[in-house]
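Data deposition worksheet. Section B asks for the primary sequence of the deposited chain exactly as it was used as input, without tags or linkers unless they were present during the calculation. Section C holds the resulting structure in token form. Section D is free text for depositor observations; keep each observation to a single sentence. Incomplete worksheets are returned to the depositor.
Section A, Depositor: J.P.
Section B:
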Amino acid sequence: MEIKYVDAHSHPHFSAFDGDREEIIQKMQQSGVATVAVGTGLKTSKQAVEIAKEYDFIWSCVGQHPTENEEFDENFYKKLLQNKTENKIVAIGECGLDFYRMEERDKERQTKLFEKQIQLAVDAGLPLMLHIRSAQNSTNAHDLAFDILKRYKKEFPKLHLHMHFFTASTETAKKFLELDATFGIPGVVTFAKSVQEMVEFLPTDKILVESDAPYAAPIPKRGQRNEPSFIIYTLEKIAEIKKLDTDLVQMQILKNTAKTFNLNLSD
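Section C:
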């Protein structure tokens, strides 16, 4: 199929799609939408690899979500990464820090888990798919993540940082731009003014678009289960905010995504 859009982060392998997965994937094909299927732990990382191997317009991302409490099995991920080309693994994650509902004692566990996955990404030469969520009315997770990542970037300047589901402030965006990060903009941009203001500020060559399906559907699908093919609405909103031609924005975001995850989109 001709790839017109890449949804930079979705979970088509999750149980929410067990009843109609084939239909959802057919809709992606019809719309020219490819995606990166993202793991959140052992089981879903394995499933992400399996679905990526099944479809030529799906890639995989493997890792452990910060709120996932299972034991981190480093050998499992290293084994998947030994065959990263065959397994179509294009990033490590989603990993990071999530202090939204965190008990203080969990901070140390999350930090250690995060640093193990940063090292995995460095060793594999892959970008990080970052899940960073601060507590309400705080920037605590973003501040700590910035400090950690700044240290790693200094030692490993080629390490690429991709901020999944980025809805933080313009000030926070400025900090991560210092680290040459890219930003995954979700469907929330279609209805949240603060996110629209932040997107207006972001350089267009740093923007990727994502669904995070089955979560966070954009207007006009808000309240429904999200799908990768719905990213078209998100992209249209970004073009409107930027006051740019939609086709231009589509091409630029396609280019940004290919560069971020080292994707060959011409096959």
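Section D:
The chain has nine helices and eight strands.
The longest helix spans residues 106-124.
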